[in-house]
Amino acid sequence: MIFLLLPAAAFFGAFFILPMCRLFLFGGSGARGWSAYTAILTDPIWSERCSPVSWAGPRRYRAPGILFDDLPPIDAVLVSHNHYDHLDLPTLERLAGKGVPRAITTLGNRERIREAGLPAVEEIDWWQSVRLSSDVTVTLVPAQHFSSRTLWDRNRTLWGGFVISGPSGNVYFAGDTGYGPHFREIARRFGPIRMALLPIAPFNPQRSKEPSRVRFPNVHMGPDEAVQAHLDLGAQVSIAAHFQVFQLGWDGFDEAPNGVASALKERNLAPASFIVPAFGRAVSAPRETESARAFSREAS
User: Domain 2-299 in CATH: superfamily?
Assistant: First the structure.
């Protein structure tokens, strides 16, 4: 679950990381009202379990990073696909009651999200875009994943990630995805990527003394794949996502964050290039690099 606040003008901004609602504030310092921002929630879940029922299924290990009642006005919700840890109807119902005006989702999910009471739900295909304001655009981009809510509806709805484009640059939210060639294509179409939000779990670490198990190479990324995706995207900075909230795989609770550190070291990359957020601490957005400025000039 990601909370994005994008300013109405180009500021460097700060990104506040809180326990798993990761809270991102895109903006400058000073007293600026909420009306100066476009506030976006992606795949929000405040429920205790990601499950079709409230009494069984994976239980939350970490509390959301912001109390639901403390949320500022939200302009839009982005829903990347229909899995229960990404499309949580109880949370969407609460957001509708709070006055959230619209949701943007992948093909096939509109009617389900409308059940939550959100007044406007738009579903789009890969590479289609929707304007949230005069200077903020959301584009659905490909992911390597799947969809299902039951045993009988696999892949009947679409899945994807989102690129949010505004005066501060392009932010890529991957949703759930395995590693694949789509990262390079997203970089080609949207580079420079100011910030990429990349999942690092669940995955199955290979241990020499254990027999090989089924892994998730096609639909999820582990730390190694996520760091390679960061390189493919050419992102100025990446933020680790999708870890240490619900136990959904065989990896240990700390293995994904530790694996990112190892993968960065193996590739001689600075730890600041791919941040595993310490819950409750702020992460500053990087200043635009000279190469990114040159890219922008060439693109224009």
Answer: Ribonuclease Z/Hydroxyacylglutathione hydrolase-like (3.60.15.10)
